[in-house]
Amino acid sequence: MTKQPLASTKIQPQSPLSSTPTGGGALLTEDDIQKYLRAATSDSTRKAYRSAIRQFEKWGGRLPTDSHSLVSYLLSRAEQLNPRTLDLHLTAIGQWHLYQGIANPVAEPLVQKTMRGIRRTHGKPKQKAKALSLEHIATLTRQLRSQPDSKKKARDLALVLVGFFGAFRRSELVAIQVEDLIWEEEGLIIRLQKSKTDQSGQGMMRALPYGTPEICPARALKSWLDVSGTRAGPVFRSVNRWDMVQSRQLNPTAINDLLKNLGEACGFDFVAELSSHSFRRGLSTSAAREKVGFELIKKQGGWKSDATVWEYIEEGQQFTDNASAILMKKMSELLT
Hints:
mainly alpha; 2 domains; DNA polymerase, domain 1
């Protein structure tokens, strides 16, 4: 069988269909089928799979492959790549075989046991983004407000406040459209057309109540829209070096760059740990420290997994709800 790289080859059904009749008599072409097959996987996942396949082929692998070739690949990469990266590579290769209707060598015991051994030998804790606290957000906003007025300043302030208090992912932030904003007397509701946990497009709502003007995300966003003259389309847009607002939406990676640059200006010693995910982790852990309830935290962040929310709550309360702290307080009383 000839090589068919995922990066350049359409997935072929096991029984190729040039056309399929529908109930109304119209014919569905292969292009129609491909359109819905592509829609079943997010662009980011498809991009990750293609990159994994390219790395496998660059090493010398060929598709379809067999379990012995996969084991050789794993052994040659075990010292260089994180086990989670190798897991992704196996998933991509396995998906290629499944959608080609070919036996999946990834599922064979030899491959699975080899991968388990690699995880146990080379596994490391996943690096997490630094959770921004309320104190950090206050410092970031003070730094931004100290800058000369500009369109970029207005955009960056809105990004920081909306990103944190809305617990948005960066993909969600840059995807917000003016048409998704619902202004109410109590604040702003942002309609998310799609998100990581809502790939089917059922839609999610994120509410941002009005607060003190200096830290209010809804007012900061309104100010940015007014200053930039944005009336439709992407809310968060690129701003060039001449402070001119561009028509295209902001690149997601620009949010990481913004946070790191602001962190350096504020003198943070954890700049390398900052990323857009610092907003979501920061909102959840900060809310947990303030004893905000589980359901409210889960709702604001749009989390589907209860376990993820509890993980954030435990992290936020690791010093306030701490057995050692209670015992140390009791011991100090005994010593006085």
